[in-house]
Design goal:
The chain has 841 residues and is of the alpha/beta class. The strands form four sheets. It has a nine-stranded mixed sheet, sandwiched between helices. The longest helix has 28 residues, at 83-110. The N and C termini lie far apart (89 Å).
Length: 841
């Protein structure tokens, strides 16, 4: 420890022991000791080649990018977030929140009525506003207002509830510090502040503003290191003092499970002594963070461990419901029973349904045994495969020969014996238990106890005394996918989104719960929250809390948002506002990019449009609680979807579903469930017998004209745009196909000859290519599709601009024609077919 005594910038809790008996571990590495010795003996700025924290940060950043990518995507359903994504989310959340604060502060000092001042600066960008501050122009030149603004910015509370290595935290810290610097220049006559002032402001920002939680303890330790390195990134001097104790701001735990339970922003407890302990934790945290009382860290941990059991019990008390599960072995049963403290089993377990593990009928001997144990079954049945025990009924029964028969111990003994004797409990109805806490990822995280400075207390002590949560900015890349185990799903069952098998849904709800009124939310998460049909509870939660939710929808091809991973992602941002009116959700179109234009795409303004009225159910705009939300964006895109909507809901409006036949007919169109850039319908099943793909299915129609019309329409750019609007660019399910509007009989009849010509040319070319190459490269038929687009424009009433938009839609991303493609098309068409392609009626 002698080395550390002389290395001032390495204290502040940076190397506090985090593993029991940590000093007894031996790390065998030839290079590591040299690096550590160099780091300790050479302070930053020595000028002799010594390592400084900013250099370590640079090396660390490159290393953790690799480590995080490997760990996260395999274990917890998340991906390491690229820098351009964190910057994009910061622009849409941190910047507007900062602007809100500046308008509020300078408006107060201006003497102008608050709303009038805000309206006057509605179109003033944050960058322009900060220039006014630095130049001391007009209202922004008041030094008292600037001092107040600096304090407010330095006290904004930023949370990442699944912080991983802390990337979002340090990006937000960068942006807030950029604002701090402008304010400091404004106070310093436009000149740069000195190094000590810069260090102090960064230090206060880290202490006051940056909060993170992650279920993975290693991730938390990395995040702490990143924040420490960020503080000294601009340099450090002995006069600046020690690094701050920011480690208590980043904690390990399960963000989804803990108090307050879902549905409220306050936490009220029946145990008054817990409030007293939390108040003491708050006092110790303040001393540790701001008075640098290093010894308080162990006391904070002791107090937190002291109240954790009481908080867990309170959480279970508030989770006042039963659920059905299965118990298949003695070990699991013993663990469940061990967590039941009550003398009455039925207080936690209400009923047990038993059956044989081989699912065969119960024998007479087994039924007799179950009857003796208090199980009920249908005696009138010739065969019984199961029996059920009402636990309360047995515990309250009297008159049994064995006076201990109705005790908890006796019931447990009977049940335990069955599990060891060829039975399983396929229905085990119980309440949430302490057992469940041992089967979740991380520990329950009780927000107001872990971060008491962010959850002020109000009301009188004891009953009615509560704490609320006040985070100003919540950002992150939380895990997604169906990755929660049974206990985690049970403990999040009170969420409005609890029935959705994607962790992203619960994370959105939790974050909106923790966000203060006027705060901003920003996540990169799965695009399933847009296109999956059972996500209405998530959408409702967004509309309840945010007047306007913006969703950028990113395709996975040619380049995914997450490099080296084909992931469909969305960026969701919005401002929380307490309003009784339902907000609107605005989406972009499917945003595509490649390695050449990625930077431009992510830095440019993205177009959004409200989705209300365009959700897809049975038809566009006609749906129940299950629907697909559209990806809209530019007005040209919206106009096309509106045209399809009007076509399907008009007085004579029909969709494919209305014309599809329930039984086989000669008029069949085959389609693939997994197309990519082209939907590739087929007029025949051209696969050899026994080789038809599993996702290759037929649609039957009444007439040949309907058949050929649907064939042309499904290969058109209009259908592709519709699929991109409502699909996931991978799966084309029956619901979406059948909801596409059908041209009228009159329009089809008017263009009968052209429909026949183009469908024949397209199909013959596809068939010959398949026979020749064993695969269909649909892009080579782009000239025919362009003609089909002209035809479809007439069938659906599109104008010339709409048709041109469709013909160029995603042309640079897989649907564009190359010179080699157009040349090779002639190989698969005869002279008559080539003339048909070149001729319009």
């Amino acid at each position: 420890m002698g080395w550390f005594d002389d290395a001032d910038y390495l204290n502040g809790g940076l190397f506090r022991e985090n593993v029991s008996n940590e000093q007894e571990y031996v790390v065998k590495d030839r290079v590591l000791p040299t690096l550590i010795e160099d780091l300790i003996h050479h302070q930053p700025g020595d000028g002799d080649g010594g390592l400084d924290p900013s250099m370590i940060g640079s090396v660390f950043e490159k290393t953790i990018t690799h480590l995080e990518y490997e760990r996260d995507q395999q274990d917890i359903g998340a991906y390491y977030t690229p820098n351009d994504v964190t910057r994009m989310i910061t622009r849409q959340t941190v910047d507007p929140k900062v602007k809100d604060e500046l308008v509020d502060v300078y408006g107060e000092y201006s003497g102008v009525e608050k709303d009038a001042f805000a309206t006057r600066h509605e179109d003033t960008s944050l960058q322009e506003m900060l220039r006014h501050v630095e130049d001391r122009e007009g209202w922004f030149g008041d030094p008292d207002a600037t001092e107040d603004a600096l304090e407010r910015i330095s006290n904004l509370r930023v949370l990442d509830p699944a912080c991983g290595s802390g990337h979002f935290l340090t990006t937000a810290m960068d942006e807030l510090h950029r604002v701090q610097m402008s304010l400091l220049r404004g106070l310093n006559g436009g000149d740069e502040p000195d190094g000590g002032t810069v260090f102090e402001e960064k230090k206060q920002l880290a202490l006051n503003s940056i909060y993170g939680v992650d279920a993975e303890p290693v991730g938390c330790e990395i995040a702490k290191l990143r924040v420490w390195l960020k503080i000294v990134e601009g340099g450090w001097d002995d006069d600046y003092g020690r690094l701050p104790n920011i480690d208590v701001n980043i904690s390990s735990g399960n963000s989804l499970i803990g108090l307050p339970i879902a549905g409220t922003t306050t936490a009220s407890l029946d145990i008054s002594d817990v409030y007293e302990t939390i108040d003491e934790v708050l006092e110790r945290r303040i001393e540790y963070k701001y008075e640098e009382a290093a010894g308080e860290r162990l006391e904070i941990e002791r107090l937190e461990e002291e109240i954790q059991p009481a908080l867990n019990r309170e959480l279970l008390r508030q989770l006042n419901f039963e659920f059905e599960t299965e118990v298949e072995d003695v070990t699991e049963f013993d663990d469940v029973v061990a967590s039941i403290d009550d003398d009455l089993l039925h207080s936690q377990v209400s009923s047990v349904k038993v059956q044989r593990e081989d699912d065969k009928a119960l024998t007479d001997e087994q039924l007799e045994r179950l009857d003796e144990a208090g199980f009920d079954y249908d005696e009138w049945r010739d065969v019984n495969k199961s029996a059920r025990l009402d636990v309360k009924e047995r515990e309250q029964s009297n008159g049994h020969d064995d006076e201990d028969w109705n005790t908890k111990e006796s019931i447990v003994e009977d049940l335990r014996g069955m599990l060891g004797d060829g039975f399983v409990f396929d229905e085990f109805v119980r309440r949430p238990l302490e057992y469940d806490f041992g089967n979740i990822f991380g520990e329950p995280f009780h927000w107001f106890a872990e971060f008491p400075e962010v959850s002020p207390r109000y009301g009188e002590e004891g009953e009615g005394s509560s704490r609320t949560l006040n985070f100003d900015l919540i950002l992150g890349n939380p895990p997604y996918g169906d990755i929660m185990g049974q206990s985690e799903k049970v403990l999040t069952d009170t969420y409005d989104t609890g029935g959705i098998n994607d962790t992203a849904a619960q994370f959105v709800e939790r974050q909106l719960q923790l966000l203060d009124d006027g705060g901003y939310f920003g996540n990169i998460t799965t695009l399933r929250l847009v296109y999956q049909s059972n996500l209405k509870p998530v959408h409702d939660k967004m509309r309840e809390t945010m007047p306007e939710t913006l969703i950028s929808c990113f395709a996975s091809r040619p380049t995914s948002v997450f490099e080296n991973a084909e992931v469909r992602a969305s960026i969701i941002t919005g401002k929380k506002t307490n309003s009784e009116e339902s907000g609107e959700i605005r989406t972009s179109e499917f945003v595509r990019m490649n390695s050449d234009n990625r930077e431009q795409v992510l830095s440019n303004t993205i177009d959004y449009h409200a989705v209300e009225g365009y959700e897809l159910g049975e038809k566009i705009g006609v749906h129940d609680s299950r629907y697909s939300m559209p990806k809209l964006g530019p007005q040209a895109h919206v106009d096309l979807i509106e045209t399809l909507r009007q076509k399907s809901i008009g007085d004579d409006g029909e969709v494919f579903r209305d014309r599809e036949q329930d039984s086989e007919t000669p008029h069949v169109v085959w389609r693939s469930y997994h197309p990519r850039y082209w939907c590739n319908p087929y007029l025949e099943n051209i696969y050899p017998a026994g080789e038809k793909p599993r996702d290759f299915e037929p649609m039957y129609f009444e007439s040949e004209l309907e058949r050929r019309t649907v064939f042309c329409v499904m290969q058109s750019s209009l259908f592709y745009l519709y699929w991109m609007t409502y699909g996931n660019e991978r799966d084309l399910n029956w619901g979406r196909v059948r909801a596409f509007p059908m041209p009228s009989d009159e329009d089809m009849e008017d263009h009968r000859d052209r429909i026949k010509e183009l469908s024949k040319s397209l199909w013959n070319g596809m068939e010959r290519m398949f026979e020749s190459e064993g695969v269909i490269h649909a892009v080579q038929f782009k000239p025919i599709v362009n003609e089909i687009d002209e035809l479809v424009g007439k069938l659906y009433g599109l104008n010339d601009e709409m048709v041109e938009y469709l013909q160029n839609y995603h042309a640079e991303y897989g649907r564009g024609l190359r010179d080699s493609d157009s040349a090779s098309l002639d190989e698969f068409l005869d002279e008559e077919e080539r003339e048909a392609v070149a001729t319009d009626d």
